[in-house]
């Protein structure tokens, strides 16, 4: 039993969970319900295990009705209205696979891929690029759900199909204070429903051991998609950067060059940025 999240007793909720292990697989069964139905009733099944050398995990959620407040074009041209879908089943599912390997000589690598189907999302989530559509959702939350639904994520994670992946390879050279670690990595996220993509390749060289580590990182965070899309909010952009971290990353210096691109990927605007970060206090 979860107490109300607001002054309204109707925002109380109840949840249950049961875990078991079957042939090396960890399985979880759960359920959740909320009195005011703003968060819809759901049943949850998740699992983790291994198939050979691959780690596998997943989660499946069946809901009665959608948590999301949607937007659609109204009868008046150029305007939008908000609505809910409360009496239909929805399904969400995620599946991830990871493989990693390490060798005694210091070489290691890993690959991780995760897919996500969000049945509550839009098949074409480009509607969320419209300021008028987002405003309709915001106004509906503030006017109709101002207390119990204040933190609705109805304007985010609006896609239906997602894919994420990462890969890294690293090596260790030398011993003691003269040790050097070199790591190459990349991650990528994509929302197929609005055709936006974000990826960031990195090359990191770390010199020294505990107490005197210095690292140099070259990266290039890149976003591809329309303005207002989930992973390219500012449109096509690439940002090469060099980061130098000193004193076990207590001090970091970064120089970056954000480059805005046109729809045909020609250069639109070039900026330069410099930053200094000092982690003087740790909690």
Radius of gyration based on Cα positions: 23 Å
What is the overall pLDDT average? 88
User: What is the β-strand count?
Assistant: 17
Global outline: globular
Biggest sheet features:
15 strands, antiparallel
Q: Structural class from helices and strands?
A: mainly beta
Strand-residue fraction? over 45%
- The residue ranges in which pLDDT falls below 50 over 5 or more consecutive positions are none
How many structural domains can be distinguished in the coordinates?
Answer: 2
DSSP helical segment count: 1
**Helix share of residues?**
under 10%
> How far do the termini sit from each other?
32 Å
Order of helices and strands: EEEEEEEEHEEEEEEEEE
Descriptive tags:
single chain; 283 residues; mainly beta; 2 domains; 15-stranded antiparallel beta sheet; two-stranded antiparallel sheet; 1 helix; globular
Task: Report on this structure.
It is built from one helix and 17 strands. It has 283 residues and is mostly beta strands. It folds into two domains: 1-159, no CATH class; 160-283. The protein has a 15-stranded antiparallel β-sheet that branches. Strands 5-6 form a two-stranded antiparallel sheet. A hairpin with a 6-residue loop joins strand 9 (161-173) and strand 10 (180-191). The longest helix is centred in the middle third of the chain and has 14 residues, at 131-144. The chain is globular and about 65 Å long. The protein starts with 12 loop residues before the first strand and ends in a 5-residue tail after the last strand. The relative contact order is 0.09.
